[in-house]
Amino acid sequence: MSWIPTLFVNSGYERAEGIAALTLYSLGAVAGIVLIGLIATKIKLAKPIAIYFIGSALFLAVVAYWQPTSVFWLNTLIFTIGFLLQGAFTAMYAMAARVYPTSVRATGIGWAAGLGRIGGSNTESFFYTPVLARRRLLSKFFTPHRRLQTHLKTLRPCADSSVAYLMLSLRRSVMRVLLG
Q1: Which of 18, 19, 44, 94 could form a disulfide with 8 if both were Cys (CB 3.0 to 4.6 A apart)?
Q2: Which CATH number fits domain 4-179: 1.20.1250.20, 1.10.10.10, 1.10.3720.10, 3.60.140.10?
């Protein structure tokens, strides 16, 4: 998230535009978290989380393929991605609290968050760290084709997560039907 201004500058935009994009991402995140919190008071979280992740993947794909040059459209997409992605991530903590028994809830959520951080920082291989990712993104040898590949790799976790939450939701529905 904090790389947004640097990526903007490296793409030819002004630093102020990058800072504005980071601000819009954060505002989108707040709005997405509030909305999914309100949704959680009415329905179970598995389906909304899956929908948020599917939306995130779709909008990330739009940015990767379309590569908008208009600051307005780019900021609109960044706001939407922040809304969906951070809303889904935050709701995952609430859902995790329902999964673990009270006696191990804090430990379970802590381990799940920690393992998620490891997975998030090691997208290409086990030793691929955020420092190397930053160096790769900012490299002058990082061609637009390689940049597109890197953006597309962010879609996989969103797609995988949405499938997992849809399966969790379906499993509960099937169990309810089978058990009566």
Answers
A1: 18
A2: 1.20.1250.20
